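Hi W., the zinc ion complex you wanted:
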Amino acid sequence: MHKPTFDVDAASILFNLPGYRVVSASPAVGDRPRQVIVETITCEGACPACGVFSCRVQARPLQHVKDVPCGGERLDVVRKRRYACIEELCPRRSFTEETDQLPSRARVTTRLTEQVITACRAEPRAVSRVADEVALAWPTVMRMLTSTLDLDSGVDRRHVAHLGIDEHRFRTVRYLRDPDSHAVKRVEPWSIVFTDLDDGSILDVVDGRRGATVRKWLAARPRWWRKRVQIVALDMSSEFRAGVRTALPRAKVSVDHWHVVRLANDMGTKVRRRRVWELHERRGRATDTPWKYRKLLTCAGDRLTLRQRSRLQEILAQDIELAVAWGIKEHVRQLLAARDTASFQRHWARLASAVRATRLPEPASLMRTLRAWRRELLTFCRSRVTNARTEAANLTAKTIKRVGRGYRNHDNYRCRIIGYAPRPIAA
Ligand SMILES: [Zn+2]
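Structure:
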């Protein structure tokens, strides 16, 4: 083994490229950026064909390789050695040296690739911004991400007991003309996010919004993986529920309580609007007490201050139908607070008889929806598994989308979301 015959100089220490020393540097001239010529500190290389070490240098070609910004500028020139193979029987006559920092045919150093990937993974930044910073093109950075990150295999290695599924729109609505029928069609690109509810990590992002997409994704998982899923938390999407029931017949479905409360609040709002039209034949105004304090009607009844409570009583005293709708909403909240089957059934019976007694169309419609989700509501009450972490993952996905000003390609979108990992994907 040959040892380097030079002393380590100050420029090499400052440049700090492992395994290399700085030979010379030239300042930026016009469009040409600053150039640094570096050379490996070893004086020999192993032939990739026969493995025999050679120190007979045949040529020293210059290769343009981009490196991390140093003092504000980047482009570097590397001097590579081309060795002649000294093994007579070797079919390869010569070979170029390779190092960890500069693999064969690399146009960027390994430390620049690592910096780019860390920048994209650590923060939900736009890929174009990261690319601008290191003077690379957007496709180059995206290629670095797609080729380095393992986006697929991590999911099937995880033990997912509680699964969350939710959807969001990943790009703007478009109107496309069908080439055959010439009819204009509205296209809404939706994405489904699968989340592990135990730690909140994103398992996958899939193009589509139908139950069939959910079923297909779940069917693609290994059998043991599907058997381990105990509870799937959903918002009130019957398509997703059908997909989950087909693909995971053993898993229970839990409906997220936030969506149920919102449904009950919407019912109250519908009654309030209808009553204003019936009484005044116009929309609500700031002079109408229910309209003025409308936010109070959607607040949790047991968490009001004394002042809020007196205002609420003022509103409810004016309109009996509104008071009834508010009472139904509070019944729904009590139902969701149940923790076991017995108290759930008790609250359910109370709610059903209260809705029957109101004879109003809005509570009856709410009750029909709740009846369709009764089994899932009971699962929620017993397990308390919610979709909150999926909603948080959805928010992360939307943040990445907004920061990047939208994505046209779903594969790039998926890579960016799964690649942005505050938590590691593999368990
Ligand atoms: Zn050889």
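Residues 290 and 310 are 13 Å apart (CA to CA).

W.
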